[in-house]
User: Fold these one by one.
Assistant:
Number 1:
Amino acid sequence: MSTYETLKGLKVKFLSADTSGSRLQEGELFYNSSDFNLKSHIATGVWSAGANLITISADLAGAGSTSAGLAFGGTPASGVTAATAEYNGTGWIVGGNMGTARRSLGGGGTQTAGLAIGGYVSGDDAIAIVEEYNGTAWSEQNDIPAGSWKPGMLGVQTAAVSMGGKVVTPEASTNITLEYDGTNWTSGGNLGTARYSATGAGTQTAGLAAGGFIVPNGYSAAVENYDGSSWTAGTALNTARGSGSNQLGGTANTSVLVYGGTNPASGKTESWDGTSWTEIADMATSTQRFAGASANSSSGFAAGGGPTSPASKSATEEFNISLSTITGAAWASGGNINTARRALWGGGTQTAGLIWGGYIGPVVENKTEEYNGTSWSEQNNLNTAGYHICGTGTQTAAVAFGRGTPPSGKTEEYNGTSWSEQNDMGTARYILSGFGVQTAAVGYGGGPLGASPTGVPGIQTEHYDGTSWTAGGNYPEKNRAGSACGTQTAGLGSAGYSPDDSGRTAEANTYDGSSWTAASAMVIAKDGTFTSGSQTDAVIFLGVAPVAAQNVVSQKYDGTSWTTSASAATPRGSHAGSSTGGATGTAYAAGGGTPNSNATEEFTGETVVVNAAKTIDFD
Amino acid sequence: MALFIYGTATNTGKGFFTHEDRRNFFLRGYSGHDGSNPIDVWVVGNNEKGALWLAEASGTEQTKAEAQALVRAADTIARTAWDNNDVDGESADEKIARIGSKPGFISIP
């Protein structure tokens, strides 16, 4: 039976503006009556900056996809690591460590069913150890028959193929293929071209191996297809490459992405549609030796790596074919503050900021400065100088409380012009944390240190109503030099130094106006940080981490979990920042130390902008 | 090809480096000292955009060893200042809370 659609065809929408919302789909034609054009949206492929890896690493392995990725093993500045990191498309969190730290390994599978094989630890030989990941922990499995350096991988945890690799001594590429059924390894047909670090894609019975490195200095463009028993030559890559990386190219052999590699390092990217290889957008940074994984030719990620040994990096890039342009979060320089100092506090926004107090040693500061998004200007001083002072609010309605030293409960309000003394906090303290607004603020934690009884204020919470302070619910553990954001009835406290644990903490807690509840832990434990945003959209930045390279790494919270975000440029702690903004908005960081800094940096969260519709030209 | 370029350039504030710069190349700033004055030391990703940024920032390229020496000099000054910054009756914890832990020696990447 004929349908209306068969007889008349599809109607072209007649609209006064470009399509939007759920109607925004690639290929959907519409007529824009405002600019008199027939139009459609066309997806384009681009690389964009993703969140940095938790630690720098090269020669690591990757698995999964852009929205559920895995990176494991590798070499930081030196040695090898067992670390695993999980990616959700916006940031990295810590996964379970492998049983054997190693680099130059092969990796495959998914984020919840990963596979690590072979690699290198030290000495003259590659290792043969195999481990499986279940989304939480690694467990050792049957070894591959012989040690292998950077074998290519394809398939899933229960039906994988390892092809090629390198023998360390004497150095040689191999053509060995091994098949894995989730338990045992058996021999498959040999590759036609011996190589290591080939990109693998597809399945055990319909696989593909592309490119790779041939000992001693050869880059291969060879592509071979696997049918479950033997390899046959396929269409070669446009660019010979041996990225030295572990790269999964796709779950099917008809939709594959290959990127990076060559010498000097390249960002060239090619996609395979089952018929031909096509050069598409280059990576922003030419790189090798990264962890890469693609579910198909439409998306992929590259994490870590580096063009030279032994230097490693932490950058992540994402490839997407999309109707939108994704711009990763980043920090930029802002106007320098007038007085470099640390242990100050701040509030407001990126375009209407406020900082006060601090320490330049030996002078304790009472200075106040306002920011207009471009430059800082001196304002009327605090009545009482202090450092490790706290507070919250806006450029025209802020409250500052606590300060040192000696510890004080002094409270002052700022009205956009001057500070005025208010009622003191119930407990004198400094190095505390706070959030809220001038008429509904919260202060918790802090010192004195070593006083009797030791650290009592460390758990106490107090509420300010614009006039006086009253007791709130105790923080779950003693905390100082933490940071917080949100409102008096929806707050978020995190990080800091825990006297109970004698170290920096990654613990986070939410506040409902009367009690604190444990939230998921941050990725990196820190103190001396600053947090901007709300209980469901926060970014915590700078501060001091156990590993110096992590000091600049920002972390973001979406109300459920923490992931890493963009890195600031200048490492420092005990700085000031905006009280609002969040991971999806804008924030600033100003001052800090040590040494005392006058630097301001401005944070802009990730943005997703729909590309303009294309006009269909009939000429 | 080296992974990083090293240089000195004064952070002039707003616009010194942009969000776009940060997406285009690695950038990390450290406090240095040239024996007379503090100086900003920058580790810059070694690509065309990174090199161009250092040039446009009126930067002076350094070797890694030279850059590390400038940072080491600033670290030494900071460590000496920390040692000399005492308050009578103050505990070790209180000193750390007041001025932070004793600065370490930073190794630039």
Note: Chain A touches chain B through 61 residues (CB under 8 Å).
Number 2:
Amino acid sequence: MGAGPFRFQRDIVAASHRSNTTIGWLLASPLAIVLVLFLVLPIVMIVVVSFWGATEFSIYPAFQLDNYEFLFASPVTYTVFLNTLMYTVITWACCLLIGFTVAYFLAFHVHSLTWQIALFLLCTIPFWTSNIIRMISWVPFLGRNGIANQSLIGMGVVNEPVEWLLFSDFAVILAFVHLYALFMVVPIFNTMMRIDRSLLEAARDAGASGFQTLTNIIIPLTTPGIMIGSIFVVTLVMGDFITVRFMSGSQSANVGRLISNDVALLQYPSAAATSVVLLLTVLIVIGIMLRFVNIRKEL
Amino acid sequence: MNVSSEGLELAAVTKTYGNTVAVDAISLRIPQASYVCLLGPSGCGKSSTLRMVAGHEDVTSGDIILNGTNITHLSPTQRGTAMMFQNYALFPHLTVAENVAFSLKMKGTGKSERLSSANRTLELVDMTALAERLPAQLSGGQQQRVALARALITDPAMLLLDEPLSALDPFLRLRMRTELKRFQRDLGISFLHVTHSQDEALALADIIIVMNEGVIEQIGSASDVFNMPRTPFVARFMGGHNVLAGPQGSFALRSDKVTITAKPSRAKTALQATISDIEYLGTAFSVAAKTDHGDDVLVTVPDTDFAASPVEIGQTVHLQWAASDAHPLSSQVSAHS
């Protein structure tokens, strides 16, 4: 008699456990399906294809290391990867400097929320046009007879047009910084806004100068945002190909262009192999960055 | 240096934000080594006053003098004050020891020296065992002690506390309250403590400064402020008082000095009233009554007295008190005595 109601209750608990698990799986499935279909499967495809073989006019399924052997044997690969890393490091450094400064100004020097929002939106306005348009708009500015050169000559700084302004590594990096600086501003601004203002007062109360507050309090507390921004910039720059092609006038190459050239020649297996190597490089770079900062608490 | 220049003095200190006057020309003098509570409702200017003394808020006009030095325009560290913030404002990325040693690091003291100095200060607040923890791993009371240690390591002449107990739960609040008072006694420096809780102020303060709308309503010892409120505002804010209109202006009457009776005695002042509410408080009953003039009067009746002669809502009774318990109030706001 005593066991009756007890067992009944236990059955209810078990049933609700079962339905909870089912509901959990159902809730997780849409995202899981999207990720599997649009992220995992394509990457698996690329890895598979990277082992295929190719002739001038056809590709055929196989399992061979020819693509990788060719890739690692070619000196071009190393030059191009080094070039890509150079673009990445310089762009990252410039974006970090600009991003941190802008975010710092917005977060700590603009005191009214309305102005903060207004200025922040102002930063995002360039994003209402496409990357290509923003890139191309540099051409008339930086060209041989562009505004920049005409002003420089007009001011008497130089006598003849500066050649390296356009179609050069300088132009590539300038465009990268222009395109991606905001990806650094946003996460840094976000972490800065979460810093309790009384911490800054506490630092001042303890005798910290403005610079000491910056290095001892603000920068350490902003590192998660800096890391998130850095991951954005690094992945975007390392995966880019169109900016390098436009802004270097096809005179410089990065890994993205290597891949895009292979694709243009229908050399999919070779393109896939390069992609896999690029993907691993990016993952290693991010892995190294995550060793330094725990961004989990920021998410 | 003469004795009168010891301690803190505020001379016509004013703070305005645009057109709003937060603190209106307040003047006061606090002797050395006293526990002072700035008491008032939110928005009364008590926090602005504290922050001006701390140097975190510019003074619009007036002077602040600490131990004979005009500190009005000095930086927080030059003033010899240290502040303990409302939510303690511990640096979340630094350990307890590093938090306490922070000001020494800013001064350029070497690492081993500043950490051993931090350890000595942590000993004072009994927190050496947790020196390597991060603030997030501490309880509220422990965080408060770390904040206290961080403020004390600079050897301040005066400690400024901004609602230090408001972040704690009620039980811990009582315990930390006792500790704060003990620290103040042991250290022999002045504590200036901002609070909106009259219980806290009564329990801690040697001197209570009651503020309202940017001006000081009353300065005095805890018992003076409680027993002899100067203005209706102080009487109402301190609680436990009835503010009534009498023939010579309004007067304050402590609710525990009023008795309820069926037959008033001739020696005492009495009013006829109707019981409108009864609340049980544990050791006493709080009885609300409405007089024939329409005034609400609160009467605190000890539970034994209430059990001896209980009353009911709607019952008509007489409220009586000794004439000496009626304390006349001034409607003017000016705290200079």
Note: The interface with chain A takes residues 54-56, 75-77, 82-83, 85-87, 89-93, 102-103, 105-107, 150-151, 154 of chain B (CB under 8 Å).
Number 3:
Amino acid sequence: MKLELFANSSRHKPGSGVESWDDGRLIAECLAGDQGAFGVLVSRYQDRLFNTVYRLLENLEDAQDVTQESFVSAYQSLASFKGDAQFFTWLYRIAVNAAISLRRKKRATVSLDSTKGQTHSFQPVDESRDTQPGASLERMENEEQIRWALGRLSVEHRAVVVLKDIEELRYEEIAEILKVPIGTVRSRLHRARLELRELLERFEQESKNRDGSC
Amino acid sequence: MLSEYQLSLICHALDGPMTADQREELRTLLADSSEARTLYLKLRSDRRRIRRLPRQLAPATMADAIMRKVRERQVLVLPKPSVPRRYRFAHWLTIAMSVVVMFGLVAVYLQLTGNDRNGDLRSRVAKRSITVESLAILPKAMEENISKGAEDTAKEPPKVVVQLPAPTQNSVDTPDSTIVLPPMSNAGAEEALAAPYDSLMRLFKVEMPKLPPIIPVGELGEATRRAQLMEAIQGQSVVHIDLFCSDTNSCFERLSKLLEQHSRPVLIDSLARLRLRAKLKTDYVLVSDWNSPDELENFLRKLPETGRSHDGQRFDSLVPLPMSAANLRTLATLLGVEVKALKPAIPQSADPRKPLSDLTVDELARSLEKREDKTPLSRPVLAVSYNPVRPNPAQSREIREYLSSRPATANPASILAMVVLRNLN
């Protein structure tokens, strides 16, 4: 993949040490017209960004599209990157905003299509889990619960939880990405945690009820 | 029940750094309240569970896909031109100097053009102006000019003298000067005068394009209209006449009847006949040879008599046009012949200085004998569809018949008329 990535760069060959360059130097190379330098930035941040976007959208295809478009947008507006923030913060801002917009759009579509009076329901745990080892089963169940609960959070709350707990960013960085004050980040995180707790308790209660009825 | 502050304190303990006071408060809260302790542990467990979520890696092809998109869209990163701080003074100084130089150049240009203008005006005034003393001898000169004869005066009409206040810059050189304007033509109302282009208020002639006359068919009986028609067709060997009417099919039938009344049989092409029978909206063209423009004019004068005034299907107007090369090509295409075939050869006039040979006399006698046996040759009129055009005119029997009936040599006064019957709507 990397060979292909650098195929268009005459100046950078694999193993030439370009991967160790810092973001600022790579951006300067990009601005000088070297697309290969941007390839290094892509390979540096693609996994991290993709994971964040995926946790926000819970859909692989959407996450892939949003990540790709975010990188392309970042490249297009690289000249406007002032350098007073970190590159990845700036990149995250583009991607998270795109994901939030897509999420809102989709939610609006779903709310129009969904039936009236629909109760809170969750994806039942895979019935075939009994055949799997216990640890794996527990991990899967945990993942399922968290995914379900995260999916029930509002997109603003979810973004804060994902950036704080999954990406382990600082308040200041989250505030920079979401373009909100630090106090807002704190209050959103506080409400998101309590809401998530309630959702997980409801999930556990419903699981117990299902097991009891069986 | 925990208060909002206690809840925020517990959440804050999970996420951010705490002051010593906050830490002390939390410790007290957790020691005193089992509810707070349980919630803290649960929230910490939730956070741990979220952190244990597997990381989703980007697909292996993503980087390539991104770079491909960048290349496909030909995204260009254009860095903003930035001026380093230490060069900013020089940068602005350069801009200011450029502006000053530009203003200077404009000022020099204006000065130069101003001088030119003054010089030009001065020289014109010197050339064309005359003093009060010389004004006295001007009528004499005009009289001499007029007496030179009508031909000269037609070429160069008398100059008009206008008293104008002297320009201030010429007050020293030419006090009480007058300016003689260039001669103005007095050709009449047909000429238009353009707007003046310079300070001397000179007016120029504009040639008006000559448009073909539009003659209402109902007014063809009037002398002026006939004169207009004759002026348009006189001296032409081929003429194109657009004849407008409200319904071409009924007007065509009426025109055919009128032609037959004038002993001119109409050869209607098969396509035109089909469209006429089906009453389809069609423009027709009638091609006919006439001995002279007068004969054609006499025929056209009968057009108003063909329709009743109240039926609304009368001929509306006609527009005679000299045959352009394009129209001639169109006619040749309609008939499927070469353009030169449409112009029959005009016989050379006999040279009175040469004696008539015996052979010629014999040929003439034989020809006259043949003519006596036969009925006078009828000159048919060909009618074909003009819109739509017949695709293969060479295969039309009527067209072939018409072409064969045309004389090999034509009278110099004869005229070929292409009358296009057009729908008014």
Note: Chain B is about 45% helix and 15% strand.
Number 4:
Amino acid sequence: MTRKLAVPLAGLAALAALPLVVTQSYLLHLVILILFYVALTAAWNILTFSGKVSFGHSAFFGLGAYASTILLVKGGVIPWIGLLAGIAMALIGALTMTVPLLRLRGPMFTLATIAYGEVLRRVAIIWRDLTAGSEGLTIPFDPGFLNMCFTSKAAYYYIFLAFAAVAVGISHWLYHSAIGFHLRATASDEEAAQALGIDTNRVQVVALMWSAGITGALGVFYAQYVYMIDPDLVFSGTLFAIQPALNGIIGGLGTVWGPVLGAVLMTPLGEFLRSYLGHVRQGLNFFIYGMALIVVVMVLPGGIISALAPLRSRLRGAGPRSPGKDVA
Amino acid sequence: MSDLFLQVTVSGLLIGGVYALLSIGLTMIFGVVRIINFAHGELMMLAMYLTFWLHTAHGVDPYLSLLVVAPAMFAIGVAIQRLVVQPILEAPALMKVFATVGLYIALQNLALMLFTADFRTIQTPYASASFRIGAISVSEPRLYAFLCAIVMIVALWAFLKFTLVGKALRAVAENRTVSALMGIRVSRLYLLAFGVGSAITGVAGTLLLPFSYVFPTIGSIYTLVAFVVVVLGGMGNMLGAFFGGLFIGLVESFSGTYVSPAIKEAAYFVIFILVLLVRPQGLFGMGKGSEEIGLK
């Protein structure tokens, strides 16, 4: 057990020292963004253990961001308590989503999730009394730990680093827990899993709750990082539903490390494309993303991690390892 | 019945005709190729931009531009089937979905690159003209759109019913293996189905443009509309898609008038979920292969 933990802990320690080396604001921002997407993609990916793919996680993200920000701006509640409220709101949102989750399979569920995220964005625009509509809400700049508001980027870096570690840790723990095995059994054959006595409904709901809860918490941290939220930002399907899904699919759906790899590779690439090609032509970066997704589906349906698997087992030698079962 | 009620019903049915056409395009592609096309609304968006471009750059009347738009969209559909769908036909349903999602992201951003995020529309002499029938007024472009849509739907129905190719298409929708055994070239008919489905979707886009806006992200709204209609009418069921289209037109018209135009997407979503809960096979029975795509 201690040996198993040694590598991740050493990695975390190295990452914790990073702000001492990286002092450029833009670079640090990029690293924060990578950590953010690692956490978001890992959270999104937990649901895919069950074989169900959501393109509507922006709903949970936005619910979290709005819950804490409304409490802070209108009630003066500190964001650390808002964090709990954000998670609670995301869980309530997830309860609504259990209806399509348990009723629909495959593409139809995915479609329902897109509609769900889109509807919440509309509601946030229309419900002006609560959300201030499209004008958005601004978080007052009042530095201090209690206010989750900092002058140095490094502080945010540590928050997102800690949270990315928590998200990946939960994902890893769930994957290898009894629930993870039940989920993967459900993903490969729901009827067979039921015949074996697995309560497939329960495990799917559990996966959705973890997935949504972490996503909601990220919405809170994100709102505190950017100070200004509006419906088109925090309920953005492109940024918080499609992007983690792209990372996950390209990295390797339904595995623990595939989505992490996907987020680490795709975020800097996306930023690079956005800052260089975005000036040339608006939209060019996402055009390339869309094409990349088509190509990955065609040539590498298991994601990048599936291409690395043979390499990894060779490095490890012929140890008694069980081959990981991939979804899809 | 009050005049307002009658007025709202008429405008709902008129727009519903166009939604029916859009949805028949989706259900045609689904019924034959058995792929859920998440880029369906984007096909419509492309056709709208094509119509816009033909009108602003070359002064072509939108209804005349159908002669260009329909064949162009047919070609685009065939190209998508050949280059994107054909290579992954045997992949699991979710993988096919990811490919069409990739397509939807690519097309949406292609439009952003070519036309920017501005809302665009075309000015025609008849854009705001209307006929008066008794106490209600009927907008001219909406009436033309409805009539064109009906003509297209009847023509498609006759094609499927009476021609040999149409019969072969229906045979493939029924059972692709047996069709192949009967000597039908299934992969060619897939190309045809995707082409025809895209072409009629494109026609729906052209018909909408004289009285609505086009912008790069408009496709996702119409993808949702088409899916709600198709789920309502039964996946793969053309007649169901027709009545489903009219029904969604009415829903949009009534919710827009009596509640708020901003909630129409929410209304679609609620209907979508309700149908799936109460009658997942749709109001008119499900087409073949619905279990493959997640309808129990």
Note: The longest strand of chain B covers residues 130-133.
